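If you are new to this repository, start here. Below is one unmodified record pulled from the training split, so you can see the exact layout before writing a loader.
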Amino acid sequence: MDANRLRSGEFARLCGTTKETLRHYNRIGLLSPAEVDPNGYQFYSAVQLIDFQLIQALRRAGSGLGRIRDCLAPDERAELQPVLRQCLDNLESQKREIALEQRILRDTLTRLELAQENQTSRFTVEESPAEYFVQTAITLPDGAHGLEGPDGDLSLASADLLRTVGDHLAYCAKRGYGTEFQSTTRIGRAAFLSGDYLSDLWICTRVDQSAKDQHRHVKPAGTYLKMVRQVELAQVAEEQHPIALLFDSYTELARFAAKHGHQITGDAYETELSIYTGGLTGSLFSEIAAQITPAE
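And here is the target side for that same chain:
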C-alpha cells in the first residue's frame, strides 16, 4: 500500500465528514476510493482531499451532487467553468445577505442599548459622527393641507405616507441596502422650526459611506440635541389616526432648545429604537435629534 493512501476513517476525519458521507459519494460515482484492498478496506489518496474540498465548496454554493459529479467527469470538464462562475455569483449573493443580516442584528443591538441608556435622561446634548442614508420624500396627495387629505380626511394623508414608506423599502431592497423597519425620518430645518412638518419630510435608510446613489443624504457630524420619546403601544392601537403621533415631540424638542439657549442649525432626525414586541403591549421608543449650536 502506498504511504500516501489514507484509510477511509482517517480520510473522513481530515475532511471533517463521516464515513457514511464517503460511502454515499462512492455509491453515486462522485468520489471513489483510490484503492480497495483484497479484504475490502478502502483507501483514499491524499490529493483527494482537494477533490473533497472542491465538492463541498460547490455544494455549499448551491450545486447539487448530481451536477457536481457530471461536471467533474473527465470528459465533461468543459462544463465545470460555467458551474464555477455560477457558484461564485451565488457566494457573492450570500455574502451580501449575511452582511445585511449582520447589520440588522448590530443595529438592533445598538438601538436597544441606546434606549436603555437614555431612559434615565430624556434630553441630552451629544457629539455625533456623520451618518449616511438613502432617502425618499414623503409627499401629500394633491390638495392636501397639513395632516389632512384633500377632502379633510386625515386617513388619506396617512395612507399616502404608508405607501411611500413601502415604495422606499422596495427601492432599498432592490439595491441591496436592506429593509430597516426600525427606520429613520428626516424633517428639513425650516419645516421643523415652522411646524409644517410634512412640507419637507423624508424616510431614510442607513447605508455605508461608500454607497453611490442619487438619493444619498449625509447627516453631518456635529453637536446634536437629542430626546428619547416613549409611546405606549396601547395608545397607538386606540388612536384613530396613529400617524398624527409622529410629530408630537418635535415641538417639545424645539421648545426645550429655545428655553436653554440652544440654536437649531440643522435638520431633525427621528430614529426608532424599539425592537420586536410580539404584540400591542409595552412601549415604542424613538430618538429625535437636531443639530444645534449649544448655549454658551
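Two things worth knowing about this chain: The CA atoms of residues 224 and 291 lie 4 Å apart. The first helix runs from residue 8 to 15.
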